[in-house]
Design brief:
- With about 450 residues, the protein is mainly alpha-helical.
- It has 16 helices and two strands.
- It has a two-stranded antiparallel sheet.
- The longest helix has about 30 residues.
- The relative contact order is 0.11.
Amino acid sequence: MSVSRSFYSLPFLLIAVVLFMICIGACILKIPGMTIHAVSLFDVFFTATSAVCTSGLMSLDAATDFTLTGQCVLLVLIKLGSLLIILTGVFLFTRFQDPVNDPIHERINFRKVLPRIVAWTIGLELLGAIALYYMWSPGIAWKSEGERWFYSFFHSISTFNNAGFSLFENGMHNELLRRNYLLQWIFIGQALAGALGILSILDLFSPLSLRARLSDPRRHIHHATKIALYFLICLTIFGSMGFFLFEDHNAIREESFFGKVTTSIFHVVVSPYSGYSTLALGSLSTASAMLVMLLVFFGPGNPSGGGSTTMPLLAVLAARFNAKLSGKKVHTLYGSRIISLHRRTAYATVLVYLALITIGTALLYNSVDEHEPLWDQSLKNIFMTEVSAICTGGFAAVETSAFDNAGHWILMGSMLIGRVSIFIIAYFFISRWKWQGKKQLQLIED
């Protein structure tokens, strides 16, 4: 296979598959019986795009606009879209592993690890559904046990895959859910598992990895797992502390101490990654809203359903800061070298994302529908909505009905570009690195 053909194959294939899934999903959702009332083709395309890209932005309400069959279709689109991104990320990881940076670990075979990925994701979603089933608020009037189980599976899959779709009116802000703190901890656990990434979960908890570490004292968890795990813990702890301080006398002032802690953790874990919120967005202070947006921007840290991520930039900056403090020329983090490939990929990703967010915000600002009651939106809220679309966070500060058709197209383009751009950028730099393989390895050794 030629270099040019090898380079363009994966990005074009990924884009083609995502577009195909969106088109098929929209056509199915347009079939009579999928929605409670007649909806436009444009709305089902927007909904299908949001489901496949797991962004959570909606022009239709999953709870009130779709029948049970339509909700099942949404669930399938969420699962397939997330699985596509997970497998793409895992493929890049396994295809371009660095034996110099990680000589202890054996190379991961994509075909062998594929069944384990599918089995573990389904298993974690099943565990989440079982936990949700027993923790729903007692005041919810279920029509049947089947409906209770369906809601449990729907929200478990949606949370683990960072989609943010809900079958409850007003989502987690519903009066029957917003003070159920034990339920919120299940959502927190599912969101953290999804954000951590399936490769990290396998590296930490799979029997094969545990036995390998016990049999070989030199073998530790993978450096990519360390980055994802440690940075996720740090972001969660410091983000929760910041949210607590910002909202202690504001949005969460009437809650108990346990409720304040739970709500704070919920909004720095579940809200940025899955888009759920137990508080009215308008009640948050500007500092808290910007904190959540920052977490949306950095996103999950490994191949996961969370979508686009700029967390590698944190790892690069930490390695650079560590090198400055120690006076070393070689940038290292957790015992692994941060080579030029890592730095260029991280910097390019952030620059591309910032450019896309700036352009998208400007276009969205000019597409606000002045005939809608929500048209008077601040630039801050529109910026937050565009960040959520690009980073597939789903934490929108503006209802999509506030935008005209052009604004909806901008949001759909943002969700699609944000979903695939990180992999295109990574593939570009990784491919160039592989083309210069021997020269690069020699530079590393020197």
